[in-house]
Amino acid sequence: MRGRPMNGKSTPDLFSVGTPTLGVEEEFLLCDPQTGRPSLRNSEVAAAGRELGISLQLELTRCQVETSTSIGNHIRDLRDQLCESRALTADAAARVGCQLIAVGTPFYDPPVDEITQKSRYQRMAGQFGAITEGVMCGCHIHVGVEDRERSVQIINHLRPWLPTLLALTANSPISGGRDTGYASWRYVLFGRWPSSGPPPFFESVGHYEDAVAAMLETGVILDPHMVYWDVRMSDHLPTVEIRISDVPATVEETMTLATLVQALVGTASAAITKGEVAPAVDQELLRAACWRAARDGLDGRSLDVESVRLLTAHQAVRRLVDHVEPALTAFGEFEQVTASLDKVFSNGNGAIMQRRQLARRSRVADVIDECARRTFEGCSSQGGSEL
């Protein structure tokens, strides 16, 4: 995907109002560095992180931690933050005998008693039983949108592009020591939650709020934070939150994802301002497209929900880039995104690289070593140590 002229398209004045604010959350797996098996020490890692000056969030399972960037206007401001947070979190993990890896699911099943000892998580385990036992590490992109009515309309505009974002970032093909047959096994596991998957098409913010209220009333969720739709309004920030993706294997892939999401939101907002209505994509068709993306990832085919035909995943990504090209150009990111996607198309994303390594070496331990290396790929050394 070489950088190219805009084929006669002019950058709309609608993008001149400014770049939407942006923040990134990444969830990571903690492993035993000797065995590669999940290590249930997130509380200790978080404590070590505080000593290093980084605040880590505890996730549902004890072998996960989450990092978050500050909110900024420009994607380039996030690279150093993402590199630093990965490095500091890895340092904190190493201090308590763990290894930090950016993968969507662990390579082996976690030990028993994996649920983090927080009252909310314990209530979730009591209410939802065995579906709380899966370990799933995702990446959540927050894009600032102050008006809730506009947020709902933006969500509608983003729905058709969710499968493409998943295919691009798929990074969890191996579970239980074997290839699952899915590029994103995390997405399949996450689908067990009753509030997960692509959101419905919403007529208004009232429609959205009624749907959340119904889930609360019926016990489908315990609190608004359990609205696990692939894209949603944040329950505590004035943002639209895109959460369909596996945690990307590298910082560069996270940067590319965040840039595309920011451009999607900007493009949707511009369309709304012009009075354009989002396509009301059939919910079951969209679910099918997301399943296909989880299975094939970037190395297969993609179901285009508007034409209802199969494309290669590479073609689907190119369609996405064409769709947001005016926004990418206005934000000054078109050349960088196309160069990064060229690299991913040539070398493979997380799922492709894991499978390639497994086929080459036939040992999961070698895959784990490669994933640990790629977690810091492209980042300079921190604290004098080589990453």
TrEMBL record:
<dbReference type="InterPro" id="IPR050141">
    <property type="entry name" value="GCL_type2/YbdK_subfam"/>
</dbReference>
<keyword id="KW-0067">ATP-binding</keyword>
<keyword id="KW-0436">Ligase</keyword>
<dbReference type="InterPro" id="IPR014746">
    <property type="entry name" value="Gln_synth/guanido_kin_cat_dom"/>
</dbReference>
<comment type="similarity">
    <text>Belongs to the glutamate--cysteine ligase type 2 family. YbdK subfamily.</text>
</comment>
<dbReference type="GO" id="GO:0042398">
    <property type="term" value="P:modified amino acid biosynthetic process"/>
</dbReference>
<dbReference type="GO" id="GO:0005524">
    <property type="term" value="F:ATP binding"/>
</dbReference>
<keyword id="KW-0547">Nucleotide-binding</keyword>
<dbReference type="Pfam" id="PF04107">
    <property type="entry name" value="GCS2"/>
</dbReference>
<dbReference type="GO" id="GO:0004357">
    <property type="term" value="F:glutamate-cysteine ligase activity"/>
</dbReference>
<dbReference type="InterPro" id="IPR006336">
    <property type="entry name" value="GCS2"/>
</dbReference>
<comment type="function">
    <text>ATP-dependent carboxylate-amine ligase which exhibits weak glutamate--cysteine ligase activity.</text>
</comment>
<protein>
    <recommendedName>
        <fullName>Putative glutamate--cysteine ligase 2</fullName>
        <ecNumber>6.3.2.2</ecNumber>
    </recommendedName>
</protein>
<dbReference type="InterPro" id="IPR011793">
    <property type="entry name" value="YbdK"/>
</dbReference>
